[in-house]
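Propose amino acids for all 88 sites.
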């Protein structure tokens, strides 16, 4: 786990060092992870009982995290591919 995150951090840090992130995107991305979590916590207990609810929650949370991670890095790769526009 640690080695995977360390490798990801250093490789992405090098690649994305010259990019300027979009602040709107940075502010919105956490909601894509938080929304499924809260919906599961609020409504999951009503329809699913016992340990099955916990398994469902963990699967949904993991899926949301994987999708958000992939989308975030795809957006960053797109920014890296576009040249930086300086002031005119």
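Proposal:
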């Amino acid at each position: 786990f640690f080695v995977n995150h360390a490798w990801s951090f250093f490789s992405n840090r090098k690649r994305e060092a010259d990019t300027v992130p979009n602040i709107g995107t940075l502010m919105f991305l956490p909601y894509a992870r938080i929304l499924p979590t809260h919906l599961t916590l609020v409504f999951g207990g009503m329809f699913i009982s016992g340990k099955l609810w916990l398994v469902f929650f963990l699967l949904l949370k993991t899926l949301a995290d994987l999708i958000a991670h992939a989308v975030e890095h795809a957006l960053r790769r797109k920014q890296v591919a576009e040249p930086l526009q300086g002031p005119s």
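DSSP finds three helices and no strands in the chain. Residues 22 and 80 are 12 Å apart (CA to CA).
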